[in-house]
Amino acid sequence: MLQSVRFLGPWQPLCGGWLAIGHRPKIGYVKTLAQHAEAMLVTLLSEREGAPRIGAAAERHSVEWLWLPMESADIPAEERMEELLELFGTMKLRLGRGAAIGIHCSAGIHRTGMIANAFLYFLGIEGLETERLLHDLRPLTAQAAGAERLAWGSRFKGLG
């Protein structure tokens, strides 16, 4: 069933659940995602980019919504480290319960690639395996996220 709920990149099995990445979903997608018993949407958009609208759609359809507002694709400030660790901890817990988690920003490239890559490191996946998984999730994101953003993710190695 989950494979029919396309999230702009294919769903990848991970830690007992499923992960997908992509660009800003259409509101109707949230309703489709809700067909999975435990679904989560992680939004990396700022308020001005319409994140609350996606959150409202998630709430309407009983999809858990986590919002990490990012104004740009810049590497997050050190002050956000605790917030990121909390987000990743929640995501890891949900994956272990079989959740389907979709991560997105606007274009699904820079912010999405940076955060997804950091999350993979958090899970204990590293090096070439991280690169392979990110490519399998969405080749465009893996190719265009940027070396500095991807390298930043290694700081989460072993923290999960």
Low-confidence stretches: none
Using the 3D structure, state the CATH architecture.
Answer: Alpha-Beta Complex
Side-by-side strand order of the widest sheet? 1-2-5-3-4
Order of helices and strands: EEHEHEHEHHHH
Name of the level-1 CATH class: Alpha Beta
Number of strands: 5
Question: Strand portion, in percent?
Answer: 5-15%
Using the CA coordinates, give the radius of gyration.
14 Å
**What integer is the average pLDDT?**
92
The number of helical runs is 7
Largest sheet report: 5 strands, mixed
Give an overview of the whole structure.
The chain has 160 residues and is an alpha/beta fold. The protein has a single domain, classed as Protein-Tyrosine Phosphatase, Chain A. Helices cover 43% and strands 14% of the residues. It contains seven helices and five strands. The protein has a five-stranded mixed beta sheet with strand order 1-2-5-3-4, with helices on both faces. Helix 1 runs parallel beside helix 2 and helix 4 packs across helix 5. The longest helix is centred in the middle third of the chain and has 16 residues. 42% of the residues are buried.
